[in-house]
Design goal:
By secondary structure, this protein is mainly alpha-helical. It contains seven helices and no strands. It has one domain (15-147). Helices cover 79% and strands 0% of the residues. The longest helix is centred in the middle third of the chain and has 26 residues, at 82-107.
């Protein structure tokens, strides 16, 4: 087996690795900073102009965001509707960046708010890769596709 064949045989693991890493991150980010310690996130959202557009309190918004992050994270871990979950996560990232950017800009590039946004850039990129690749070989999506005979 030459180097190119070895590389191709290992490429099948890329969607799995990305799904597990990003899925765990989304589940963690939904549970710990939003459900267990929501106060800093609620305070940040209450300073954003976006909350004025929503018919709910900042605390309710953070709760709904947490549930969405946990659900889409679990979907990625399982490889279930991977593209849909990745699209939802990409939209949440865009919403977070747009909503928090003005706060980060007021406090400067070294602020905690700016650092929160920095993780979202590569996370957005990984979600774009998963939108393109789908769940990969080791996913419920692939199992469902094969059981249908497609």
């Amino acid at each position: 087996m030459n180097f190119d064949n070895q590389l191709l045989s290992k490429e099948k693991y890329i969607p799995l690795i990305l799904r597990v890493i990003v899925g765990l991150l989304w589940v963690w980010m939904g549970i710990v900073p939003k459900l267990i310690y929501p106060e800093p996130r609620v305070a940040m959202v209450s300073k954003s102009w976006v909350i004025d557009l929503l018919p709910m309190s900042p605390a309710h918004f953070i709760f709904i965001l947490a549930i969405a992050e946990i659900i889409t994270g679990v979907m990625l871990l399982l490889g279930l509707f991977t593209r849909l979950a990745s699209i939802a996560q990409a939209l949440m990232i865009i919403m977070i960046i747009v909503g928090v950017w003005n706060i980060a800009a007021m406090h400067g590039i070294t602020s905690p708010q700016a650092h929160l946004l920095m993780k979202d850039i590569p996370l957005f990129g990984i979600n774009m890769v998963l939108i393109i690749t789908g769940g990969g070989l080791y996913s419920i999506d692939n199992w469902r596709k094969q059981s249908k005979g497609v």
